[in-house]
Amino acid sequence: MRSLLRFEGAAVIAVIFDVGGVLIDWNPRHLYRKLFNEDAAMERFLAEVCTPAWNHRQDAGRSWAEGTAELVARWPEHEALIRAFDARWEEMVPGLLAQTVALVRMLASRGVKLYCLTNFSAEKFPLVRRRFDFFEVFDGIVVSGEVGLAKPDPAIFRHLLNRFALPADGCLFIDDMPANVAAASTVGIAAHLFRSADALAIELRQRGLL
């Protein structure tokens, strides 16, 4: 039987998790530290060539073939490094964030509805879904690259609410990016800015979810 729990007058019926930086350790530096001799050069490359904005377009639905071709045309001297972002992408994910995943399993054991709302390439998400079995406990998953919307666009939050027939004021959203937390709030979803599993556990207990 699913739980119906209360915190400051609002009924919480679902907890929505981001994936990268909350449930799994995704960071391109895990790969590029192997490819650069100096951190400063690596950081310049990630700030100027394979930028977060460029990666975000794959998260929003663009293919890796198209994204890679665009950068290679612009930065031919960095072709090998650019192609590594796609070809060696899995090396950016050394593992899961065990303490947060433990909280997910605890929530599931208490009958709390669980969802994922993640900015992720439609081509790459199947790689992590096969690799990590904790995804099986979620009641639903929305992947930005599959729906052509990406956080912090409020439309992707509305998409999740509509798809799973969830009331905005009955959800708690957890993400490590301030802009995404702010966007959730604009559609009426309570949000927690993730900084550590310990801090998240405190909020979940305060809400009566644990």
Entry keywords:
single chain; about 210 residues; alpha/beta; Rossmann fold; 2 domains; 5-stranded parallel sheet; two-stranded antiparallel ribbon; disordered N terminus
What features would you describe in this structure?
By secondary structure, this protein is an alpha/beta fold. The protein folds into two domains: 134 residues, Rossmann fold; 64 residues, no CATH class. The protein has eleven helices and seven strands. The strands form two sheets. Strands 5-4-3-6-7 form a five-stranded parallel β-sheet, with helices on both faces. A two-stranded antiparallel ribbon has the order 1-2.
Provide a quick synopsis of the model.
The protein has 210 residues and is of the alpha/beta class. The chain folds into two domains: 5-25 and 94-206, HAD superfamily/HAD-like (Rossmann fold, 3-Layer(aba) Sandwich), CATH 3.40.50; 29-92, no CATH class.
Strand order of the largest sheet: 5-4-3-6-7
Secondary structure tally: strands:
7
| Helix count from the secondary structure assignment | 11
Outline the biggest β-sheet.
Answer: 5 strands, parallel
Name of the CATH first level of the largest domain: Alpha Beta
Q: What is the beta-strand fraction?
A: 5-15%
- Helix vs. strand class: alpha/beta
- Rg (C-alpha, Å): 18 Å
> Approximately how much helix is present in the residues?
40-55%
The CATH superfamily of the largest domain is known as: HAD superfamily/HAD-like
What's the number of structural domains? Answer: 2
H and E string? EEEHHHHHHEHEHHEHEH
Shape: globular
At CATH level 2, the architecture of the largest domain is 3-Layer(aba) Sandwich
Multimerization state: single chain
Low-confidence stretches: 1-7
Mean pLDDT: 95
